[in-house]
C-alpha cells in the first residue's frame, strides 16, 4: 500500500508456506463465546483447513482469526493496523447463531471470552503484546461500564416499579372518583326529583294563597259594605266622633275666645278695685295662680294692655269651662229643666255607686250616658224650655262681662256682647258632643294647691299638660321652662279617658294642652 500510514506501520504479511488452522465454534474463540463476521485470517501452518461447506451449521457461523496468530507473524515493535483491527474485531465479536437470555448476561459472556482469549499464549506473535496490554486495560473499563449499566438498569427498574405502583394508585383513585361520580349523579337525580316535587307543592301552595287572597278580598269587600251600612245607621250609643273632630272643635273655641279678646283694651282706662269681687278670689286664682288678693289683680292689669287681654282670655275660658263644659252638674241645662235635673241626678248617683261598690262598670255608665245624651239631643224643647236655656247662657255671659266691660269701648259694646253669646253657644254645642261620647272627655284648668299652712304653692310648669303661649314652635328648653313661674292661664286642657269602644277607662291623656303665660 502506498499511503503514509503504511510507510510508518508496514503491513506484516504472514508466511505463505504454512497453513493456518480454521477457527470454528470448537476452537478457543468459539469456546469463549466470541464470533465475528470479519474475514478469516490466513490459515496456520501444518493445520488442515476445512471448507465451510462441510457443515451447514458451521457455515452459518462467522469465523474469527486469533489476534495472537496474526501478531506472532508480526515483527516485535511493529504496529500493523490490520493485525490490530483483527484483534479488536475479535474482542467485540458475538455469536449470533446462539441467542442469549439478557443483555447483561450476553455482555458478561463477551467479556469473559475476551479475557480468556487474551490470557492464552499468542504463539508465534510476540509483537502483539502491546495490543494484548491494551486489551487487558480495556477489560476493567468494560466491566465498570457494565456495572454502571447494571446500576442504571436497576434504577430504571426501580423507577418502573414505582411508576407501576403510582399507576395502580392512580387507577384506584380514578375508580374511586368514578364511584363517587356515580353516587353524586344518583344524588343529583334524587335531588332533581325532590325539587320537582317541591316545585309542584309550591305551585299548589301558590294556588291556595291565591284562593285565600281572593277570599280575603271578598271578606274585605263584605266588611267595607258592612262598615258603610253601619255608618249610614246610628249605633246603639249614637254616632261617635273621632278624636280629631273633637280636638278641632275644642281648639276652634279657644281660638275664637282669643279673637274676641282682641276687641278690648284699645284705649286707656282706669279699673277700680271695686270691679273685682273678693268673694271670687278663688276663681281669679284659676287664671292668676299667684294671686293672693285683689291688689295683685289690680297691679297686674293696670298698665300692660297685653296682660289685660291675656287676663280676659283666661277669665272667659274659665267661666265657659266651669259652667258649660264641666263634666257634671248644671251643664245639662240644654236638655230642659225637668230632663236636665233628672239626668244630672242619675248621673251623680251612678258615679257615686261606681266609686263606692264597683257594681257599675265604667263602660256600662258611659254607655248609658252616651245613649241618654244622644236621645235627649233629639228632643225638641218647647218655647219655655228654650227661653230658659237662653237665660242660662245670658247669665254666664254676664259673669264674664261684669268684670271685663271697663276695657271695652262703649260704642263697640253691643257687638262685643253678641260675640260673647256666640262663644257660649259654641261651647254648649261642644258640651253636648262630649256628653254623647262613650269615652270620658273633660275640660280642666290646672289646679292651684296650698301648703299645710294654707299658703299658696307656686303652680309648676308641666310640659305634658301645658304649653307656653310664647313658645309657638316648641323650641324652648323644657328644663328651663320648669323653673319659670306660671303668671297666667289662658286656656284649659282637654283630657280624654277611655275610647269609643268602651275600653281602657283607666288610661287618661291630654288631647289638647293648657295655654299658659310664664313669668320670672
Describe the structure.
There is one protein chain. With 520 residues, the chain is mostly helical. Helix 8 (243-261) crosses helix 11 (305-323) and helix 9 crosses helix 11 (305-323). It contains 16 helices and six strands. The strands form two sheets. A three-stranded antiparallel beta sheet has the order 1-4-5, with helices on one face. The chain has a three-stranded mixed beta sheet with strand order 2-6-3. It has two domains: 4-149, no CATH class; 243-519, no CATH class.
Query: How do the strands line up in the largest sheet?
Result: 1-4-5
Q: Gap between N and C termini, in Å?
A: 151 Å
Given helix and strand content, the structural type is mainly alpha
Indicate how many domains the architecture comprises: 2
Please provide the ordered H/E string of secondary-structure elements.
Answer: HHHHHHHHHHHHHHHEEHEEEE
Largest sheet: 3 strands, antiparallel
What is the residue-mean pLDDT, rounded to a whole number?
Answer: 76
Query: Count the helices. How many?
Result: 16
Computed over alpha carbons, the radius of gyration is: 70 Å
Relative helix content:
55-70%
Number of strands: 6
Described by the principal axes of the CA atoms, the overall outline is elongated
Amino acid at each position: 500500500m502506498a499511503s503514509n500510514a503504511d510507510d510508518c506501520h508496514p503491513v506484516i504479511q504472514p508466511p505463505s508456506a504454512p497453513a493456518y488452522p480454521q477457527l470454528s465454534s470448537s476452537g478457543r474463540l468459539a469456546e469463549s463465546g466470541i464470533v465475528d463476521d470479519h474475514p478469516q485470517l490466513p490459515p496456520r501452518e501444518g493445520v488442515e483447513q476445512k471448507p465451510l461447506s462441510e457443515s451447514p451449521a458451521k457455515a452459518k457461523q462467522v469465523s474469527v482469526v486469533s489476534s495472537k496468530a496474526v501478531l506472532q507473524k508480526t515483527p516485535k515493535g511493529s504496529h500493523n493496523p490490520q493485525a490490530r483491527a483483527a484483534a479488536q474485531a475479535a474482542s467485540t465479536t458475538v455469536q449470533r447463531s446462539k441467542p442469549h437470555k439478557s443483555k447483561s448476561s450476553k455482555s458478561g459472556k463477551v467479556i469473559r471470552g475476551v479475557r480468556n482469549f487474551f490470557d492464552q499464549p499468542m504463539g508465534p506473535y510476540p509483537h502483539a503484546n502491546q495490543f494484548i496490554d491494551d486489551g487487558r486495560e480495556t477489560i476493567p473499563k468494560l466491566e465498570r461500564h457494565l456495572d454502571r449499566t447494571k446500576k442504571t438498569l436497576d434504577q430504571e427498574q426501580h423507577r418502573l416499579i414505582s411508576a407501576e405502583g403510582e399507576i395502580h394508585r392512580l387507577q384506584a383513585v380514578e375508580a374511586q372518583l368514578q364511584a363517587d361520580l356515580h353516587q353524586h349523579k344518583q344524588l343529583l337525580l334524587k335531588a332533581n326529583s325532590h325539587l320537582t316535587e317541591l316545585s309542584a307543592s309550591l305551585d299548589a301552595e301558590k294556588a291556595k294563597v291565591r284562593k285565600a287572597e281572593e277570599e280575603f278580598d271578598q271578606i274585605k269587600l263584605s266588611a267595607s259594605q258592612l262598615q258603610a251600612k253601619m255608618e249610614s245607621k246610628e249605633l246603639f250609643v249614637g254616632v261617635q266622633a273621632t278624636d280629631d273632630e273633637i280636638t278641632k272643635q275644642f281648639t276652634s273655641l279657644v281660638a275664637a275666645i282669643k279673637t274676641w279678646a282682641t276687641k278690648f283694651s284699645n284705649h286707656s282706662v282706669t279699673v277700680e278695685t271695686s270691679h273685682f269681687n273678693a268673694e271670687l278670689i278663688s276663681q281669679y286664682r284659676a287664671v292668676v295662680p299667684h294671686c293672693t288678693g285683689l291688689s295683685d289683680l289690680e297691679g297686674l292689669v293696670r298698665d300692660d294692655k297685653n296682660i289685660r287681654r291675656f287676663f280676659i282670655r283666661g277669665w272667659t275660658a274659665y267661666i265657659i269651662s266651669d259652667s258649660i263644659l264641666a263634666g257634671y252638674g248644671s251643664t245639662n241645662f240644654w236638655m230642659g229643666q225637668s230632663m236636665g235635673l233628672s239626668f244630672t241626678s242619675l248621673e251623680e248617683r251612678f258615679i257615686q255607686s261606681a266609686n263606692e261598690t264597683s257594681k257599675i262598670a265604667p263602660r256600662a255608665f258611659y254607655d248609658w250616658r252616651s245613649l241618654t245624651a244622644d236621645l235627649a239631643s233629639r228632643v225638641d224643647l218647647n218655647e219655655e224650655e228654650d227661653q230658659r236655656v237662653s237665660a242660662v247662657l245670658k247669665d254666664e255671659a254676664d259673669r264674664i262681662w261684669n268684670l271685663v266691660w271697663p276695657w271695652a269701648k262703649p260704642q263697640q259694646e253691643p257687638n262685643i256682647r253678641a260675640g260673647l253669646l256666640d262663644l257660649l253657644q259654641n261651647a254648649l254645642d261642644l258640651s253636648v258632643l262630649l256628653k254623647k261620647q262613650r269615652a270620658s272627655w273633660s275640660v280642666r284648668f290646672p289646679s292651684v294647691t296650698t301648703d299645710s299652712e294654707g299658703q299658696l304653692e307656686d303652680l309648676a310648669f308641666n310640659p305634658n299638660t301645658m304649653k307656653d303661649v310664647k313658645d309657638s314652635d316648641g323650641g324652648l328648653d323644657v328644663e328651663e321652662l320648669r323653673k319659670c313661674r306660671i303668671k297666667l292661664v289662658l286656656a284649659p286642657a282637654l283630657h280624654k279617658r277611655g275610647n269609643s269602644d268602651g275600653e281602657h277607662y283607666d288610661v287618661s291623656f291630654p288631647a289638647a294642652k293648657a295655654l299658659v303665660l310664664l313669668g320670672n
